[in-house]
Amino acid sequence: MTSVRSLAQGSIAVGLVVLGLKYAAYHLTGSVALLSDAIESIVNVVTAIVALLAITLSAKPADDEHPYGHHKAEYFSAVLEGVLIVLAAILILREAYAGYLEPRKLDAPWLGLAMNGAATLINAGWAWLLIRQGRERRSPALTADGRHLLTDVISSIGVLGGVGVAALSGIAILDPILAALVALNILWAGWGLMKESLSGLMDEAIAPATLVSIKQIISSHADGAIEAHDLRTRRAGSMTFIDFHLVVAGSTTVSAAHDICDKLETAIRQEIGEALITIHVEPDDKAKHSGIVVL
């Protein structure tokens, strides 16, 4: 978790550097499109701060009021990030409309584009790192932050190309039109981010491929059991929750049944990582003759 916190803290520092470069590019050129890029970077800084707070909260151990832990805090962070992206898109559309009504010639466009390009390269490298680390550490907040930065990178590349064309052609109205396109792009990204995060808040089941792996582990590692049924899963941040019923012979001792459960829990965690596993042991007369057959 320390590494996750360090990455979240790094996002704040990187966001401030990128924001400074992009705002300087806008200040030099007066480009509405470059202003839209700078506004999105403001959102990046704010969401990085929110992500750090969410990661810190989610790392708190379970307590009497939250016996299952605080893992879902990261989903709230991702939802808030989506909301802020939408607000940023609205602000950009407002600036684009004003620029459309009064288009202006760009000042020092090439120096501004060079500064914006440097900021884009920094964002691209950091986005790649956040997405990779977020997936490896199963951190929705880091992954959401990285995906948003990747969207920023894509829109920034479009901005660089469009402003370059506007500077070469002298067609000033291309600048606000490009800003509007940037706004629509991040609006779509914000909606996708909120939709994915809400799925986590609604206790969506884990990925089908992971579920298949769990079933295979139960089938091959539950020596001494007969079957398993009513398997349920959900994920909250970095924690996976798994529960199922395990049927054993009626003559099985409590100690033997406990050993089977321990073996299963160890095998499952070795495959999928951190997990809270609940196994309800039942005698053979409760068998449903369905679900997972133990080999």
From TrEMBL:
It is a multi-pass membrane protein. InterPro entries: Cation_efflux, Cation_efflux_CTD, Cation_efflux_CTD_sf, Cation_efflux_TM, Cation_efflux_TMD_sf, CDF_Transporter. Residues 210-283 form the Cation efflux protein cytoplasmic domain. Signal peptide: none annotated. Keywords: Cell membrane, Membrane, Transmembrane, Transmembrane helix, Transport. Residues 11-202 form the Cation efflux protein transmembrane domain. The chain crosses the membrane at residues 7-26, 38-57, 78-97, 109-129, 149-171, 177-194. Its main location: membrane. The keyword Kinase does not apply. GO terms for cellular component: plasma membrane. GO terms for molecular function: cadmium ion transmembrane transporter activity; ferrous iron transmembrane transporter activity; zinc efflux antiporter activity. It is found in: Cell membrane. It holds the Pfam family ZT_dimer. GO terms for biological process: intracellular zinc ion homeostasis. Belongs to the cation diffusion facilitator (CDF) transporter (TC 2.A.4) family. This is Protein p34. It comes from Tardiphaga robiniae.
